[in-house]
Amino acid sequence: MKQFVYMDAAASWLKPQSVIESEADFLANSYANAGRGICARAGHVDTLVDESRKTVADFINSDKENIVWTSGTTDAINRIVNILKNTYSDKILTVAVSDLEHHSARLPFEMWANNSGCNIVVMPLDKELNIDKDNLPLADVYVITAMSNVIGVAQDVELIIQSIRKINPNAITIVDAAQFVVHNKIDIKKFDCDFLVFSGHKIGADTGVGVMYIKNPEVWNVDKFGGGMVNRIMDDGSVLLNKSPEKFEAGTLPLTQIIGLKSAIKYLSDWKSGHDLIEYMYDELSKIERIKIFTKRDASMISFIVKDMHVIDFGAMIGAHDICIRVGNMCASWIHKKLNIDGSVRISVGPWNTMEDAKSVVDVIKEILK
Ligand SMILES: Cc1ncc(COP(=O)(O)O)c(C=O)c1O
Predict the structure, then answer these.
(1) Looking at ligand 1, which residue's alpha carbon is closest to its atom 14?
(2) Superfamily per CATH, domain 273-368
(3) How far is the CA of 236 from the centre of ligand 1 (A)?
């Protein structure tokens, strides 16, 4: 039987068996709500959620009270915009973004700016398409895409934030680590950012769970109200909130996904990277005259265009060979505009991919473009 080749890890990971098993076990044997019950079974769920939070905290060298569950990166960035709105009320902030951003990291700010809530300034990129930390504009808030989902190069987040703090010691720094976290160790103490976000599904967990690290949770107003975050409703109608992280977690949590995330992080930590596959495909695809690769050999993904062929046509042809790779604008319009292209083709690998997969992808591409 012809093998289906899934090389779109940067969009979403296939799920490791350990994640599937931990979720199935929870659903079959331990399910109850968290943070609400006092029976032993509910207490056990609280422990499971707490263990998962501890795993995430350790994973990025943080503490449990700084780790807030979200439904993913997009949710987290939209929430941060609302947290900023609720904390600064009518103050107009200047927000620095870059052309590396995914729509999820920049559009919530652009839309806020359209409603005159903030001003946007764009951080320049250098010749290598990295954030030019020596020419940063003055801003109140900086959004840093730690790794573009098109270029696949890790930004030097630590140095960028040090440069930001020289310009504005009080700047608020937000790191989109959705792609970075797959390939790089995060040490939040070194980054010293105010917020860092990533999605579970890109590292093997289920959809519907994500992480929002908040450095100083006590200084921020919440963006959501509901069950689980209230300590007491006072007689005057005011609300005494729980401490972080609960104060940011209104409503029932995505429990199954949170429990799966613990197994996913263990699995990711054991993965040795698929860079040998990337290098092999990079070298082979570089030999094809009609392909123009615009990522580096040591990047975490390969992005390219095909001369005289629309990327969607290319995607349809390769898809017909049961190969799943990504084509289009990758929800990252600004970097495509900067490169003066409408879209691109992206190949990205996960732990399930083999050298045989890499060879079949190269063979099929050669066949299509011969
Ligand atoms: C760099 C980057 N940021 C944000 C996102 C949005 O992630 P999600 O769709 O999981 O919210 C993605 C997804 O591709 C991404 O690659």
Answers:
(1) 11
(2) Aspartate Aminotransferase, domain 1 (3.90.1150.10)
(3) 42
